[in-house]
Amino acid sequence: MDDTSVNMAGPSPGGESVSVAPRHPEKAHRPDQPVARKPPWIRVKAPGVGQWDETKAIIKDRKLVTVCEEAGCPNIGECWAKRHATFMIMGDICTRACAFCNVRTGLPRHLDESEPERVADAVAKLALAHVVITSVDRDDLADGGAAHFAKVIAAIRSLSPQTTIEVLTPDFLRKQGALETVVAARPDVFNHNLETVPSKYLTVRPGARYFHSVRLLQRVKELDAGMFTKSGIMVGLGEERNEVLQLMDDLRSADVDFLTIGQYLQPTKKHHPVMAFIPPEEFAAYASIARAKGFLLVSASPLTRSSHHAGEDFARLKAAREQSRNPA
Ligand code: SF4
To answer: SS3 for 297?
Structure first.
């Protein structure tokens, strides 16, 4: 899966896969990495409160997959209590094997043509004002799953025309025309996460190419200058501060509007270790530097994830663009 600045607090609490194969076969023989104890500033709400049960039932009844569960997102207690969920389309098996990600890896199943309608039905039932749709990487498909993304967008638009739609896509590496297909479906926000700084790609995100991902975001703006673009990274993977600042400049060169920065959390002892827990004040410093570099919106905190508070952030993003065009 290519998202994660929605990452990874622990094994999936509710994955529905029936496979008995190891969740990450490619990691099974790796040496164990000690899982560091979380600092006091990383505290999350327990699942099960508010409208949690209703959210869960709506998702399960429609046999949908969420990144909230598959990635073991630490915010699931808070988000599901408010009926917010992020749908992960095209199955629960990813063709990449990123070192930080808890989504199951292996050979995916066939695309389910009924999924767009089921997602749209859940969005309507949850009465979402803003929805985030992400996916596993589908390198096995000729278009990387772009047409399926477009069908999901169309199905949501048809059932819930007022709902704004944010896509969080894979990188569509070597999938000619895929990006154009998704942009033509007119999501309101196009998000693609860089995940980490370029020096960490070989160990953290080996199947991806940093400059391809930056270029993908730049190309969205070339295709549709009005579309909001967004990207996210995790910190605590061993990156240098200056590398993060350089990454911010790279994203601004690609005209990216919105940057999210969150703390990496290690899902299992087979995953990349946490190299540092970044204190909240360092996140605040990153946020103010990023704002100074010209992002319309920045969200940076230990528990920031791509889709956390995405609806509220979309409203702020629109207001920030308005303000930048018509300063008082
Ligand atoms: S932050 Fe995103 S992925 Fe995590 S629980 Fe909330 S909606 Fe789901």
So the answer is: strand
